[in-house]
Amino acid sequence: MVYLIHIPYSKEKAVETLNKAFLKKYVTPLKLFRLSYWGYGGLSYYLLRNSVIQFIVIDSFLAYLAIEIGLFYLKTNKKLFFLLWLLFFPNNTYLYTDIIHVSRLSFYPTNSLIMTLNPTTWLCFFWMLLGIFLLIYVGNLLIRQISDCLKRNYELNHQKCFLVNGLFLLLFSFGTYIGRFLRFNTIDLFSKPLTVLSKIFYSLNIDACLFIASMTIFQLIIFFFLTHEHKSFMHRSNQ
């Protein structure tokens, strides 16, 4: 007689298996994304090293690093990497505010109302937007996948999942505010946490709250548009 022994299969293990299946399914797009980013980063360093927008090299790398941390969380389902992702991901949403730096480019020659056709100016403009849009697009898809992971981990319904996405974007807007206006980065949270907390406490006012709220709403619109269109595209592709 053969006895079947039931080995409990934890929920965490099941979620980890589903996450790995997702990563395996999208292994080719992820490889293309990584190849695209490193090609973009390398060319950015070469092309923009003396440009007024050379900052995009560092900013785009930090945004990319946040995505890799999120992917590693999906691979391992470890809470430590989820917390690291929360701390680093504002570097991705920070890219929204980098768009304001196109004003550093000289689109109008001195005393002229006619835009320049200088190829260097327009190359910098399009190159900067290319990196920003690529990283923001992949970043939003990652938020969606991580929220789906939490949905499976904690058996969240659609309403709670919507709330989780909203809280994510609120936190990331707050992190963007800290980086853009208080000039702190993620490392500062570990190296001088009391200084960061003190500065945040004394800096919060109605203008800061309006910025955070406005950016959260803006991100919600972008998030649901991008993820809905991606989901619709994948559904049509599988038919």
UniProtKB/TrEMBL annotation:
Keyword Membrane set for record: yes
Listed InterPro entries: DUF1361
One Pfam family cited in the UniProt record for this chain: DUF1361
Keywords: Membrane, Transmembrane, Transmembrane helix
Transmembrane segments: 52-74, 81-100, 120-142, 162-182, 202-226
Name of protein: Uncharacterized protein
